[in-house]
Amino acid sequence: MPEPFRNYYRETASADVLDWRTDFGFDAASNDYAVLKVPVLLVRAALANPAMVAMMEALKQALPDPRSPIVPGAGHFLITSHAIECAALLTDFLTEASEDTARPG
User: Are 30 and 64 contacting, i.e. CB atoms less than 8 angstroms apart?
Assistant: First the structure.
């Protein structure tokens, strides 16, 4: 991993731990997700670990209409290793979502 990334992760580790602690207090059932009326983008790395794959599949089943692309060749830190692909997916998703909300009805 490049040194600037290592330095960033070292500097932000305490915030990451706080994020994880907050997450452990979040309790939602799958039917809580089923009522969401907002577009959802679930991006997964093709080389994600089995636990992440299982979580993504559970979310896909629980959400009413998720978009769930898989980034080929990407691992855990796909937003750094495949930034261009992730940016394109997000741009396309946001464009589609804004067009959907602009339509009457």
Answer: no
One-letter identity of residue 99: E
Q: Pick the closest to residue 58 from 31, 76, 39 (CA basis).
A: 31
CA distance 94 to 14: 31
* Sequence-ordered list of residues with C-beta below 8 angstroms from that of 62, at least 6 positions apart, any chain: 30, 31, 33, 34
Nearest to 46 by CA among 6, 16, 86, 93: 86
**Structure tokens given for 47:** 């080389």
In tens digits, what is the pLDDT along the chain, a chain of 105 residues? 788 878 887 887 777 666 666 666 667 888 899 999 999 999 999 999 998 899 999 999 999 999 999 999 999 889 889 999 999 999 999 999 888 776 665
